[in-house]
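Run log, item B.
One chain of 102 residues. Sequence copied directly from the ordering sheet:
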Amino acid sequence: MLAVQVTRHPDGQCPASEEERCGTAADWYENIRSIAGKFGVKLMGSWDDPSAQKIYALYEAPSMDNLAVMMMDPAASGPPALCTGKVFPVLDHQTIMKTIKR
């Protein structure tokens, strides 16, 4: 299954510009792939939208349970620990096409 994590930090509290938060953010970016792998989860990619203070991460996981357990690990929290966010399942185009084909 695919899932998207969308997180947003408060205005004026960018982890990239505050020294005490920089380390936490850098650790997440450097380690999230290996951390996710411990839970059977694969980070497919992540994208930042600096003007909106948002981070988008796409994960592939055997189940939402694997993803939820990973998200509870303190090492996986990184920027999300500095932010508010949500995680939700998504479908790729091939899956949608199989669903809507007659």
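Observations after the first pass:
- The first helix runs from residue 19 to 37.
- The helical segments are 19-37, 64-72, 74-81, 93-100.
Flagged for discussion on Thursday.
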